[in-house]
Amino acid sequence: LKEVLLSNTFNVLPSIKYGVNQKNNLDIQLVIDALDVAYTNDLIDCFCIVSGDSDYTPLVGKLKSMGKYVLGISRSEVASNIFIKACNEFIFLESVTTDSSSPASDEDDTYSDPDDLSEVLEKIISDQADTDGTMFVSELKKTLLRLRPEFSEKSYGYSSFGKLLNVMETRYHTIKVFGDNNSLKVKLLGDQKNLSGEISKSNWVSILQNLLTRLKNSGFNRVNPSIIKSELQKKYPDFDERQIGFKKFSDMMKRLEKDKIIRIEFNEAKTMLIKIL
Question: Where along the chain do the CATH 3.30.420.610 domains lie?
């Protein structure tokens, strides 16, 4: 592995294990290196942090304040929701390893939720379109990534954002994509409607089952519960577990475990993880 990294111009540093804080013995070095590059090399405007550790959130904030673009990459089960939202863009390793060579179809929602995406896109266009009602596709994606750094068109089965929008246009008939590849624009068509409804005591189990199934089919075998809740709140912004009779979100997970929908596990740091059955 070391030879492979060195041949690809990575700087490999030894991690000397000692004491009780072995996990953090290189964190400071990584932060120093990142800030050193940010301050001394104006040509570098994008930083990639391969970690899900919330300890790097202040670093992300500093880099963004300097006008740098920050991409985060991590496995979902160890990714902090705070760190995910701090990044300009965030990619789950599971979505990278998932085969996206064949596009998603109307009958097979094996990737992310297209209904949810359609609502978000409509809201962005409605709020930020120019006076003529149009918006550049590039600006639409930038805004979408600010709202949802973990978004990737590959998780929907498409290699480009433009191809995904074309499918959304055909499927929902709520947006219109036009222009050439260098200046694609999009606008809203007709009246918009709320597809999400409400989450209640009678439907929360089936809603979570559908969400967990989509995550599993996208390659997420074990998931941090904070990510599950975040995904749920994207479609149901007013969701609160107390409204359906639970004191904590973890209590909902325990109920799902009792119903044999999931299994609760803990990693070495004693962080709760959800194994999707």
Answer: 114-188
Q: What is the pTM of this model?
A: 0.52
CATH architecture of 2-97: 3-Layer(aba) Sandwich (3.40)
Determine the topology of domain 114-188 in CATH: Nucleotidyltransferase; domain 5 (3.30.420)
Taking the C-alpha atoms of residue 252 and residue 249, their distance in angstroms, rounded to an integer, is: 5
What lies within 8 Å, CB to CB, of 273 at 6+ separation is: 77, 222, 223, 224, 225, 264, 265, 266, 267
CA torsion, ordered 195, 201, 205, 208, to nearest 10 deg:
50
Q: What is the pLDDT of residues 236-252, one digit of tens each?
A: 877 888 888 899 999 99
Q: Say yes or no to pLDDT of 191 above 50.
A: no
What DSSP string runs through 59-111?
HHHHHHHTT-EEEEEE-GGG--HHHHHHSSEEEEHHHHHS--SS--BTTB--S
